[in-house]
Input
Amino acid sequence: MSKLDNRLRSLKIKRGEKMRKPIIAGNWKMHNTLFESGEMLKELLPLVNKSSVEVIICPNYTSLTEIFKLLKGSNIKLGAQNMHYEEKGAYTGEVSPVFLKEIGVDYIILGHSERRKIFGEIDVIINKKIKAALKHNLSPILCVGETLEEREKDITYEIIKKQIEYCLEGLKDTNLDKLVVAYEPVWAIGTGKTATKEDANDVISFIRRLLSEYINKKMADKTRILYGGSVKPNNIKELMEMGEIDGALVGGASLKANDFAKIINY
Ligand code: PEP
Output
């Protein structure tokens, strides 16, 4: 960073401004039918139309096409929750990056802990998916995070290092402008427990250092790194006040228009 960049950075921090445009992303998981998704959006759109953050919603596959139509002209972008790494083929039940791109999807959540834990997804597969997403001009939201057991063993940083290293393997010379990372401690997802803002900020700062080592500093400084894990209207502000936290990936609280709007308009 040049001296001028450094001065601008400290000025922004003093004014409480963010260096990178914040993202608030809602992961609807396997909730909301097509009808419910539409009703929720009707409520949400007028509440967030003045928001200055980048807002993303990630509904289930069957709602994507309809939701894309409803989002036209709004400031909300569309994301999906998973995809296969191949473009087409005999992969029963899977969805290709080409199909997602065709219907207007911009973001793709990859490596969510529920996919890792329930569906056995491992880092090498996530790595293939990230490569496929980038190839098809989708922005991957790569989720990493330690389990409670790993945190209690005091190996959080080792786990995060391994996940980042494996998931980004072979990407050193690729343009990673589209990459977003989400630090989601598994023990905080859907449990009502949140990492302290200091802990979340420290781990995110560590992830940025890793990106700087594995890829390069310029890319690390640009990459948005979000926190996820029981983010609610009452804790978003303090999390967003931390210098390294560039936004939030929100599960449960993104299902209620009022709560999600409060988080977006923190
Ligand atoms: C998530 O599923 O990514 C998540 C963070 O969920 P919750 O906000 O419900 O903890």
Summary: The mean pLDDT is 94. The two ends are 29 Å apart (CA to CA). The longest strand covers residues 139-144.
